[in-house]
Amino acid sequence: MIFSTVAEFKSALPQIARLIGLDLGEKTIGLALSDNLRLIASARTNLKRSKFSTNAAEIEQLIAREEVGGVVIGLPLNMDGSSGPAAQAARAFARNFAARCPLPLLLWDERLSTAAVTRTLIAADTSRQRRREVVDKMAAAYILQGALDAMRHTP
User: Is this structure's pTM higher than 0.85?
Assistant: First the structure.
């Protein structure tokens, strides 16, 4: 089931379980995982973007292996809060994934997540090549951490 509020999502989760965060890029899908207590998000890996069924199967394998209890998908809204093509694509991915996977799913506003991560990497003097390699999985961790922080402040 897809949730749009943190409170509803949180109430649908098991007491203790990891969450997986997804940053749906055009060429790659960044993945991040939380710890079991849902305090810290860690960048995990990038998947090369391919057919939905192939990417969904790869994500489901990670979910099963890591005993994940919920999914957070970044929703790239426009700066004014409206939905553009990228947000529509993220919603479509979420709908299709929810049809395959019974876990609770949260769409999380990810405006400027990639920009924030890129600034951090530039400040750390990371090469362009290395930034390309890690930006999506780090953006996934940034998105997931935002959702985790919001959940801690939601009754």
Answer: yes
